What we know:
Blueprint lengths: L2 E10 L2 E11 L4 E5 L6 H9 L6 E6 L2 E2 L5 H4 L1 E5 L10 H11 L4 H14 L15 H13 L5 E5 L7 H18 L2 E6 L2 H7 L2 E6 L2 E6 L8
Parallel strand pairs: 3-8, 3-9, 6-7, 7-8
Antiparallel strand pairs: 1-2, 1-4, 4-5, 9-10
Helix pairs in contact: 3-4, 3-5, 4-5, 5-6
The structure holds adenosine-5'-diphosphate (2 copies).
Protein name: ABC-type sugar transport system ATPase subunit
Keywords: ATP-binding, Nucleotide-binding, Sugar transport, Transport
Amino acid sequence: MDIRIQDLTMRFDNITAVNHLSTTIKDGELVSLLGPSGCGKSTTLMLLSGLYKPTSGRIYFGNQNVTELDAEKRQVGMVFQNYALYPHLSVLKNIMFPLKMKKMNKIEAREQATEMAELLHIGHLLNRKPGQLSGGQQQRVAIARALVKKPNVLLLDEPLSNLDARLRLEMREEIRRIQQEVGITAVFVTHDQEEALSISDRVMIMNNGVLQQDSEPQQMYKK
Ligand code: ADP
Ligand code: ADP
């Protein structure tokens, strides 16, 4: 589903975290939001998720104006840097959790969660607890849980920054593979330029809340 952002602004007291941002993200595209700490990346992601409501401006998912919709109603999948898994639940139950919230029947939920786990190559880890997994495996569980509801949009906030260098490379390729296999529109926040250039169809550079550059990786340095 495509995402249209129109003149989006978010102010906190006297800080303008996002300043008149406009862009369109095409269906199935993976876009990186790149920029230094404090430039407004996370705030933009929170606005897309519905966890924040903007001071002004609009967000559309397809033809639907979602600006005033709460997070649950927008159907977004989110992945965070710290995985945010439920430590007392097994991998299977972590992945099933969003389906349980939707009151899907148990057999169907188990089937869909298992299928998603296999897509993420964690089908052999379903009975483990998060504490018994490596960082890379935990991030795979978090991605499976984010995708199991078949959301409209996948939002990733620095998902690789807690991994060591080798896993960071591996999971970068895995996220790209899965995003393309599922065919989901994705927004990927990072402060790592190389990561942004290698993973995305398009890189949006933010500076002080302003969208400074918006181009394909191969066009980035031609200006
Ligand atoms: P980034 O993700 O690029 O590091 P953020 O979106 O987190 O940037 O922050 C952008 C600016 O907004 C920063 O100046 C930050 O201090 C401020 N900010 C973010 N969230 C809040 C908040 N909840 N309350 C007040 N200021 C905030
Ligand atoms: P670790 O953190 O232990 O290195 P990874 O995050 O690299 O684990 O991978 C998670 C699990 O998925 C591992 O058990 C790994 O063997 C398995 N795995 C990774 N890539 C593939 C693949 N392409 N096909 C099948 N299994 C894979």
